[in-house]
Amino acid sequence: MSFVDTALAPRVDIATSQRYHGVLARQLRSELRLVFRRRRNLAMLVVLGAVPILIGTAVKLSTPRPGDGGPAFIGQLTNNGLFLAFTALTICLPVFLPLAVAVVCGDAIAGEANTGTLRYLLTVPVSRTRLLVVKGLGALAYLAAAITLVALVGMLTGLALFGSHGVTLLSGDTIPFASGLGRAFGVAMFVFIDLLGLAALAFFLSTLTEVPIGAMAGTVALVIAFAVLDSVPQLGSIRGILLTHHWLDFGDLLRSTYSLTSIAHNLLVPIAYTAIFGSAAWARLTTADITS
Questions:
Q1: Contact criterion met (CB below 8 Å) for 195 and 103
Q2: Pairing state between β 174-175 and 167-168
Q3: What is the pTM of this model?
Q4: Is the pLDDT of residue 166 over 80?
Q5: Cβ contacts of residue 172 below 8 Å, gap of 6+?
Q6: N or C: which end of the chain has fewer CB within 10 A?
Q7: Nearest 5°: phi and psi at 174?
Q8: Where are the domains of the chain?
């Protein structure tokens, strides 16, 4: 290699790296626009945002009495406006949030294959791995936005309807409102990590079919199956490896004392699902024969 070639080589590498990152940034912006501009995705956000408003209004008009049933958080609403965010997440987690994950992640790859655009997305310099990363980041951004929307609307609605008093925890202790905000952030992060495993599972199903509704329905069916199996006490410790088993364990964060080790242990299951099915989705997409 000549002196000129040696001097120019680093500049070429820098230019290639900048061009690579520029293409990745453009792809990510395009994916985010695609995800957040779809009418069905916007409609799901509207529904999710309406849940805490409906709950807060119902509780305000008719205060629940002890023994009426429902989530334990509802009994705390009249004295703790912040608890509306926790209640809304509790109600959205079994159905609405998994449905949003199923729709967005299930459509990520299968939707492109169904419309015939997947082949064109994989043209140079777009690799299959980069496509999966971009699609995954777009879906996770939507999931984070959905959880944030539920928590934020719940918090603002709760404060407007019930005030910003000191936050009384499930254990009966009262903490300052600022500390309550920290607990709310922790709960939102717990729910986000909880749903990562479901997102990875939906992505894997999306790589197996060219029919988006099939991946969506398969994801919802698995959530229902996990929930049914989790309600069978005869399964014993086997229930601990079910994806839905630890979804509501964020209640530990709403007690005066909690163990970070225990909370981290509860998050091992969704993290394991994320690693397994994320790897399976990558293996499937990088080896599949793309025909559409």
A1: no
A2: antiparallel
A3: 0.84
A4: no
A5: 256
A6: N
A7: -110, 135
A8: 38-287
Higher local confidence (pLDDT), 36 or 16: 36
Rg (CA), the chain: 22
Q: How far is it, in rounded angstroms, from Cα 197 to Cα 199?
A: 5
d(CA 50, CA 68): 23
With cut-offs at 50, 70 and 90, classify the pLDDT of residue 71: low
Q: Taking the C-alpha atoms of 280, 281, 287 and 291 in order, what is their torsion angle to the nearest 10 degrees?
A: 150
Is the Cβ–Cβ distance between 180 and 236 less than 8 Å?
A: no
The per-residue pLDDT for 16 is 46
Longest dimension (CA), the chain: 85
Residues near 101 by beta carbon (within 8 Å), at least 6 away in sequence:
139, 143, 195, 198, 199, 202, 219
Strand blocks (E) in the chain: 167-168, 174-175
Q: What is the mean pLDDT of residues 43-69?
A: 81
**pLDDT over threshold 90, residue 39:** yes
Q: Determine the average pLDDT of the residues in 40-44.
A: 94
d(CA 163, CA 155): 10
SS3 291: coil
Q: How many CB atoms lie within 10 A of CB 284?
A: 18
pLDDT at 19 (0 to 100):
52
